[in-house]
Structure formats: C-alpha cells, structure tokens
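Lecture notes, unit on protein representations.

Consider one protein chain, 333 amino acids long.
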Amino acid sequence: MWAVRRVSRPVALILVATVVVLTFAASLALGSRWLGLGAVGHALLSPDGTDADVIVRSLRLPRTVVALVIGVCLGIAGALMQGHTRNALAEPGIFGVSAGAALAVVLGLQVGLVETVGSTVWCALIGALVATFAVQRLASRGSGATPVGLALTGAAVAAMLGALTSAIVLLDANTLDGYRFWAVGSVAGRGFDVVGQVLPFALIGLLLAAVNARDLDLLALGDDVAAGLGLSVRRARLVGLLAIGLLTAAGVAACGPIGFLGLLSGHVARRIFGARNAWLIPAAGLTGAAALILADLVGRLVGGAGEVQAGVVLGIVGAPLFVVVVRRRAVAL
C-alpha cells in the first residue's frame, strides 16, 4: 500500500483537499503571464480593473471553477462505476454516457440547434441521460442489471452510438468542424454560465452518490448476501446508475468527453482510502478535481502562445503513468 495509508483516513482526506486548494491557487496564478499571490488576492478581494484583475476574474477563475466542479463529478462517477461493476479498471464511458452525449451534440449541430455553449450543454445532457436509461433498461432484462450485464450492455450501446456519430460527422463537413472543437475535452472558454446550467444535475447526482455509498458496501459482498441483509439490489443498481449518468452527463455536457479522469480518480482514491465508500467517494471527487485543474494548468504552461487542451494532457501524461501503476501493483476491489 502507498505510504499515505499509514495515516488515518481523515488526515489523508485533509491532505487530498489541501492538494486541491494548492492546484486551484496555482491555476489562478500561473499561465502565459505569471502572477504573484498578492496580485491574485487583490483581483479576488478588491479588484480595480487592472490587467491582472481582468486575467484572474474573467479568464482564469471561471475555467478553474469549471475544472473543480467537473473534476468532482467525473471522479465520483468513476468510483461508482468501479464499485457497481466490481472492476477497478472501469470508467463511466463504458455505460455509453459519453457516446450518447456526443451523438446528441452532433444531431444538434446538424439541425442547427447547437449554436452556443448553453445549447451544447442541454443537447449533451439529454443525450447522456437517454443513453443511461437505455443501458439500464436493456441490462435489466432477464436476471437484472448485474455488474457484467451493465458493462457489456454499456459497451455495446457505446459502440453503436459511436458508429452513428462517426457516420454523421464524416458525411457532413460543417457538422465535423463544429463537433471536433467540443469533442477534444477542454475547460477553455467555459464560464460560470456553464456551471450554473449543469450544477442542478450535478447536485442531484452527488446526492444519489451519497445515498448509494452504503448500498455499494453491501453489494461488494455479493448480490445474494446483500439481498439477504435486506438490500433491494435492483433499487441500489438503479440509484447508482442514475448517479453515474447525471454526474457524467454534467461533465461531458460542460467540457466534452474527457477520458481517463474517472478511471484514474477512482483507482487512486481506492488505493489510498480502501474500499469503504463513505471515504472513497469524496476522495475520488477531490482527486478528480485536482487532476483536471492540474491538467488544464499544464496545458496552458506547455502550449506557448496557444494551449494544449486538458483532455489531451490527461491522455498523454496520465494514461502511461496509470499503466505503470497497474503493472506494478495488483488491481483488485
């Protein structure tokens, strides 16, 4: 186990929260123009219209808040996904949520419904939620929504929706141009208006995740044992699926499909805090927030006059590191 497991869980959670605060502060201070903490504090507490005030309040603060909120959502969604499928390498995209959101955005672009960030958010949310319900309904046929059934059904739905999306964008150059900027996965250009539109869905998803935490602990013992202890397995799966759908939909709608974040956050939190979901779920949210803020910051620092999008940074830097961790340590729930 990692060294942090030698401290108590409350202390470890405080340490993770401290990392989030430090990355948040660094995101406000660093970029193409580096600012001191004094300039950042002045911009936040007593702005008077200087260049530094405008940079912090109009550019860096909104995108950092977006990264914080969406990172929490996708981190918790990853932990829930891994718990319900009993697979530490699972991630929310396997439910077809991202693919549903992408298809809805493409259809919206094609018919002219998607013209602003707000309209993109609503199209993505609708597509993500429809895909979530479709997976749940299909997986529930027969013996019910088992972990294997959910994973296989989600993968099949994701493949089908992804094929439809590819067909549309390849046949329509205008739709492709609009879609490719959203699909890369980024917090750039997102502001407080985007947070406001996805926040109600995110809050409902967080509430459902909190309710689902104890049920997940029982489900880890096996469906038969959980049912024998009085748990409604079908209800627990449905609540968990709804939480995953809402949280992932909020993240995908706001920032596009950001891969790997849920996978990384859930696994790292599990390695540090163990399998008890009362600690695992908030830890995964904080880990996801720190990772997305840091990825956005790195993209700004290495991009020179431009920037590398957060989704690209997470894929290039995070995926190889995660492979190394998995190869060096047994992955188990």
